[in-house]
Amino acid sequence: MLATLVDKPFDGEGWLYEVKWDGYRAIAYLNNGRAELQSRNDKSFNDKFYPVYNSLTQWKINAVLDGEIIVSNDKGISNFSKLQNWRSEADGELIYYLFDILWLDGKDLTQLPLTERREILKSIEPSVENIRISESFNAGATEFFEVAKKLELEGIIAKKTASKYYPGQRSKEWLKIKTSKRQEVIIGGYTHNEDSSKLFSSLLVGVFDNGKLQYTGKIGTGFSDKLQKEMMKQFKPLIIKESPFTFIPDVNKPSRFRPNPSKATATWLQPKLICEVSYAEMTTDGVMRHPSFEGMREDKSAIEVVREKEKHTEDVVNLPKQSLHKKRTEKLTMKKKSQKTVDKSLTGRLIKTSEKTERKTLLNPTEKSQTKNINGHSITFNNLNKIYFPKKKVTKRDVINYYYLVAPYMLPYMKDRPQTLIRYPNGIDGKSFYQKDVTGKVPEWIRQFPYSSERGGDRNFLVCTDEASLLLIASMGGLEMHPWSSRIQKPDHPDWCILDLDPSDKTSFKQVITAAQTIKQVLDAIDVTAYCKTSGATGIHIYIPLGAKYTYEQSKEFGRVLVKIVHSMIPDFTSIERIIENRKERLYLDFLQNRPQATLAAPYSLRPKQDATVSMPLLWDEVNTGLQMKDFTIFNAVERIHKHGDIFKGVLGKGINLKSVLKKINKVFGPVEMHESLKT
């Protein structure tokens, strides 16, 4: 059912008013977990707007619903251009606003009054964030319209409370009042100015009138370079030799604002593509003044696009004149402060912001190649269907989406740190390789850190500086992240000291747990706070914060002191021997990870194991015999992080006072042999 455009708001008995959402109209067909989401021209929205579709499949009802799909900004306002460019949840929050129900459990509801249909709709409302019922009001349309203008909404809809639903018909019982001038138009061609570097300079648009395409103007603003590239892909197969317009527009016609325009050439297109335009006014000959591109429309057929002319509200509604733009007696005399309160109250009912703040996935589930702008850098992610973890069917897309979701928590342990890349271009079952030198092999915006090499010449580590660089590593097949313990600002001073519990094939995980608990006892005895995480493979990593106050040599030798004490307490199954043969298949208490350029998997990093495990920070009371490495995987890690937050962040704190700690070691455990670096 379609609404008639009128020119003014009105307050009248027997009418409901609601927001005119700026999105795509969509009908949902639900059948006990099966769903179809369709546009007005019967195109499927199932894949395009997959978060809404997925929510609909969870709604176990049998119904046909009418509503509007929008992209909501942080204030809850719909944004049509973002909807038109929407590819994944990172592009904005999709919401399906429902305003009508046509069928339920085998019963046709279209002949019931609107108020009854809405009551039925409210009775089955699902408890999911991205499906909502559009709020309606039964009074105060004039005030409602003014608030809609302040919020820069597209407009309001007025519906008769007793109105029935007539599919496909444009009714005078449903009316729309726009806050600004908008028009859907058909693209009949584009121009290119001879002095322009852009792909096109303007769009040539029109509307159908008795089956003929009438020219309505030239649109030269409102599209980015990225959008132009996408539009040109749509234009290419539609190029024709002759103009589709009834009269060929003069693309070089001077105007009052451009008396000497650049010479332009026109390329004509089959009149199939639709876009939406905002404009200041329409001239007497039907051409828009100051039009601006708002976005492409895929939910309608070109033949439907005609010039939309406002009807006079008085002629349509047939209300007494005093009810049109009715003076608000008490409300208009309110003080300004009171009026702000009224506006705020109305706004709160009209617009709902999302309660969720967690970020959503970066890449959509269908396109094999996707380009995203991250931190101002354009990154193209290719081969997204490639399987990285065969056992669990985890793809490259899944890996990149994972790192996007954990980036806010992971970046503190990656930022400003040179990286040793371990790349798996064909997944964990393919060949992998280490890469330190990235000179000439990464984009110019990637920061690099030089190092010397026996081969000579420039050698540079990749430095992770932000989300874009982290995701570039993932895109290069770096499914596990290996940062330095120090940052480039103080490259010789690590932020932490690491004790790596590295079991042999003959060591049980229970013994790894015992060793970790023993280290905790030692550290508690000398009042040192430490943080632990699973390695994601077979061991456990324990980090002691140093605050970048000590050298790698001092960190290494402090680790040596600690593992000697621990080894003396559990000598039967541990070793501190570097040479593997000398360990006699015992658990290795590795302190040598505290050397310059040595790296371990970062907190929250994936590991190349069949279960797609994660190196997960732990609470110390979780370090018990019930702990298993497979407890933390790509499938549950994000949920756990949201539940507990970043429990590892203390590692980046002030750090220990090494001099005081060494004194406590001597006091509690007796005199211990120390390297010269610890005596200074």
From TrEMBL:
EC number: 6.5.1.1
Cofactor requirements of the protein: Mn(2+)
One Pfam entry name: DNA_ligase_A_C
Keywords: ATP-binding, DNA damage, DNA recombination, DNA repair, DNA-binding, DNA-directed DNA polymerase, Exonuclease, Hydrolase, Ligase, Manganese, Metal-binding, Multifunctional enzyme, Nuclease, Nucleotide-binding, Nucleotidyltransferase, Transferase
InterPro entries documented for this protein: DNA_ligase_ATP-dep_C, DNA_ligase_ATP-dep_cent, LigD_ligase_dom, LigD_pol_dom, NA-bd_OB-fold, NHEJ_ligase_prk, NHEJ_LigD
Domain of life: Bacteria
GO process annotations (BP): DNA recombination; DNA repair
Domain ATP-dependent DNA ligase family profile: 87-220
GO molecular function, one term: ATP binding
Keyword DNA-binding: yes
UniProt catalytic activity: ATP + (deoxyribonucleotide)n-3'-hydroxyl + 5'-phospho-(deoxyribonucleotide)m = (deoxyribonucleotide)n+m + AMP + diphosphate
Major enzyme class: ligase
PROSITE patterns for the chain: DNA_LIGASE_A3 (PS50160)
NCBIfam families the UniProt entry points to: ligD_pol (TIGR02778), NHEJ_ligase_lig (TIGR02779), NHEJ_ligase_prk (TIGR02776)
Name of the protein this chain belongs to: DNA ligase (ATP)
